[in-house]
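[stage:ingest] chain + small molecule (adenosine-5'-diphosphate)
[stage:ingest] validated
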Amino acid sequence: MITHTGLRSRILLTVGASTAAIMMFLSWGMLYSWRNSLLTEERATIQAISGAFSVAVIDALIFADQDLYQAEGFLDNYVAMFMAQNPRLTAITVLDQTGRTTARSWDSGEAPWVSGPATRVLADETVRTTVTARTDGRWVMETVYPLRTGHRSWGALILQIEAESIRAQIRRNFVLLALFTSAVTSLLLLLLWFLLGRLLSSLQVLVTAMDSVDFQPTSGPALPARQDEIGILYRHFQRMQERVDQSHREMLRAEHQMLHAERLAAIGRLASGLAHEINNPINGVRNCIYAIRRDPQNAEQTATYLDLMDEGLTNASGVLHKLLGFARKQQAAPGPIDLNEAVRAVERLVKFDLERQQIRLELALTDSLPPVVADRQLMQEVIMNLLLNARDAVESGGLIRVTSRHAAGQVSVAVEDSGDGIDAGILDRVFDPFFTTKKTGEGTGLGLSICLNIVQAAGGTLEVASSPGAGATFTIKLPASPSGIPQEDTT
Ligand code: ADP
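[stage:predict] done
[stage:export] tokens:
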């Protein structure tokens, strides 16, 4: 299941945060350069006004110095006139060379300028403009204009204009830009939200298709044809599904062939016992034929020998029939089967061989065993493999016991032998494909791994228990079929 919100919110968070950061950076840059150009413009204006006003002030100071007229009264009038002409001017102060205020626009009281004490103001040799807040909290732009003619200083002119309107303008633009940034970011996020929703729902269809792959080429919901990356992904997924289907079919074929090969190998392992079982009746028949030829007139003897020949040939054909039945290639067809019956069918095949090697085979089968759902022939193959392994493990005179039980809803068949057992070091490897301790030509190492596959495919387990020297027990456990009559084992 795709976690829509997880992926979507992660992308939205990343894109949202980076867009907001970029927008903020750009807005701040724009605002900063716009503020600088506004201040430069204002600064140029106030400096131009100061320059123009300073000419008249210097003239008045020169006249006053030469006692041509009273500079103070004249200058005060001039300052008042100038103030009236420039409504943005908030204060004008004229300092003489000693730092005394010779003319001003403001009434008595505290000097309104903000550029520092008179001595500091007089020390300036160039025009200086500052923007700062006054003690009353209002912002002003102030220019200190040195009044000089050649090397002589006549004092300084301090002009102040209000900067509140500039500040308000800057603040307004800041708010506008902030609003613009958040609007653009929100719009972008909204767009992204919808696009991601569509993208993720397409992915969801793909994920559902992937989830429902059951090796059927036509299985799973189809995605409407589309030309984007999702469409390409879907087409690749379909191709992959086809390849998986094909390799699955090939795997099944190979598995089937391997099963058949292992079955033939098992027959090979039985060959000498079976050959003996077929040879015996043939020799018996041959002896009967000789006897009949020697005395063809003896009708009674002929009748007896013919009966013996018939019995011998029936036995031989019975052995061959069972052998062919086991070797025949068949499709797996699971159905309710009786495991006791499977054990008995295998016993008929292996008993000649075990008898020849003087190995005792004991069957301790629980009666009325409930059926299990499995393929009859495959189950016989599993039991056959376990019996042949047990035969290989025990010496002549040894014992193999096959026990069947029913307990806790499960039917089990245990093949126990009196052989040397399995070393603890290799116990967990015996089910590995191609693991064998037998000589080349005697073992393929596939038997137990195939048995395990067959039992697991039928929903059961195959377990081994052994300690060296104490023989080995392989136990098949399969769920009892519900259609069977459950009957607890009390033995
Ligand atoms: P193979 O019989 O061809 O070697 P299997 O997969 O049937 O292949 O068995 C793997 C190995 O497990 C055997 O080679 C043997 O070492 C061990 N094994 C299986 N059954 C027994 C047993 N009953 N007693 C001792 N060892 C066993």
